[in-house]
Write a structure and sequence with these properties.
Elements lengths: L21 E6 L8 E7 L13 E7 L9 E7 L5 E4 L12 E6 L1 H4 L8 E9 L10 E12 L7
């Protein structure tokens, strides 16, 4: 994660909102390493994802047509129970070369056992989590505006 060419270590040109996005390079065929790529954030606050009636996790992503297609996924966990992995429906999401919002209903995580009142980690990954043997692809993606939302009405 990061862009060593900028003082902020963030992407400052390819952004969705604000002035920065998070670049994530992946190489799922690197000798001696796992065959999937992840970036993980341990949360200190906010950890209660049920406050104020939030029902959705939203993140914006931007891939590239030169990227190798790899599954894009999000993992949410808390200190008790197993982490829950949600995989994007588009197996070629890494190749989408425009800003695209991915909305995940929080119910998806609770249905699989995550206690949303005490979320401690969120992970974004590419590839098949846990894969240590089958080579995958490589590329670079950008992520921005990772947020929790209350129910939203579709724009007309």
């Amino acid at each position: 994660v990061g862009d060593e060419d900028t003082a902020s270590y963030t992407e400052e040109t390819i952004v969705h909102g604000g002035r920065h996005s998070m670049p994530l390079s992946y190489d799922n065929d690197k000798q001696g390493f796992a065959k999937y790529s992840e970036v993980e954030l341990t949360l200190t606050a906010p950890r209660d994802w049920t406050e104020e009636g939030v029902t959705e996790l939203s993140l914006w992503f931007y891939g590239g047509s030169a990227n190798d297609a790899e599954p894009l996924y999000v993992v949410v966990s808390n200190s008790v129970g197993n982490p829950v992995i949600v995989v994007h429906d588009d197996a070629a999401a890494a190749q989408v070369n425009k800003w695209t919002e991915w909305v995940i209903p929080l119910q998806t995580f609770t249905d699989q056992g995550v206690n949303l009142t005490n979320v401690d980690k969120i992970t974004i990954g590419l590839g098949t989590r846990g894969n240590l043997t089958t080579p995958g692809g490589s590329g670079k993606m950008y992520f921005d505006d990772i947020r929790l939302y209350r129910p939203r009405e579709a724009a007309e």
